[in-house]
Design a protein that fits this description.
Layout (H helix, E strand, L loop, with lengths): L2 E10 L2 E10 L4 E5 L6 H9 L6 E6 L2 E2 L5 H8 L2 E4 L11 H6 L10 H14 L15 H14 L4 E5 L7 H18 L2 E6 L2 H4 L5 E6 L2 E6 L1 H5 L4 H20 L1
Parallel strand pairs: 3-8, 3-9, 6-7, 7-8
Antiparallel strand pairs: 1-2, 1-4, 4-5, 9-10
Helix pairs in contact: 4-5
């Protein structure tokens, strides 16, 4: 497994999560769906070790991240690429320089190989033409693409994406979904994506978990989750049905 959550509990003044269990297989796309404020971003932080669980265990690529220290912990975290919701690029650097950042440490690649890797990643996300533009001059959609390029530069086995379609219009969201699928096909990496965009991500994920009320209320393949009785998901589908009905009435 690329990622396992084993009965994870987390408690903080603003967020509590209880008994979270989830497995993401190699090359699989798993999506955690839930309303705003449900703790989806906290799940990602647990998965990369930015916060520690109160109880339970997080495992990356078959090894325990929870409780690991020092070089062993850093070696595990290098297997993971993280894409923040707003991109989290360094404003004073160009797109190319941002993508190169993960390759600047560890000395695993020579200068020529680093340059080639950066160009490869920029091409994969369709941003090779913007390589010399500063992050501050990029649109939100472009920032997200560059952030994805940076995340895959180290060739991780797992990618964590925090609400990748947030703030994007319908066309940009569809393009982002297509890009995610392309990256999965080209790299073979597994994905854990958190989002509240249920109508979009339910269509093509391999596995879906609904996070509501601090717990996973449903976990399974998309068709299984769509038949669940989770109240948040039911409300989402009801709103979608009403919107489609109004559109048909206008037509």
């Amino acid at each position: 497994m690329s990622l396992e959550l084993r009965h994870v509990f987390f408690d903080a003044p603003t967020r509590s999560l209880r008994d979270l269990s989830l497995a993401v297989a190699a090359g699989e796309i798993c999506v955690v769906l839930g309303p705003n404020g449900s703790g989806k971003s906290t799940v990602l932080r647990l998965c990369i070790g930015l916060v520690e669980p109160l109880r339970g265990e997080v495992r990356l690529c078959g090894e325990a991240l929870t409780g690991s220290r020092g070089a062993a912990r850093e070696a595990l975290r290098r297997q993971v690429g993280y894409v923040f919701q707003e991109g989290a690029l360094l404003e004073g650097l160009t797109a190319r320089e941002n993508v190169a950042l993960p390759l600047a440490y560890g000395g695993r690649l020579g200068a020529a190989d680093r340059r080639a890797r950066v160009e490869e990643c920029l091409r994969l996300v369709g941003m090779e033409g913007a390589a010399e533009r500063y992050a501050s001059a990029l649109s939100l959609g472009e920032r997200k693409r560059v952030s994805m390029a940076r995340a895959i530069a180290g060739r991780p086995r797992l990618l964590l994406l925090d609400d990748p379609t947030a703030g994007l219009d319908s066309l940009q969201s569809a393009e982002t979904v297509a890009l995610i699928r392309t990256i999965r096909r080209e790299t073979g990496a597994a994905f854990l994506i958190v989002s509240n965009d249920a109508t979009r991500f339910l269509r093509w994920a391999n596995r879906v978990a609904i996070l509501h009320g601090g717990a996973f209320t449903s976990v399974g393949e998309p068709h299984e989750v769509m038949n669940s009785s989770d109240p948040w998901l039911t409300e989402v589908f009801d709103k979608l049905a009403r919107a489609e009905s109004r559109e048909e009435g206008i037509a």
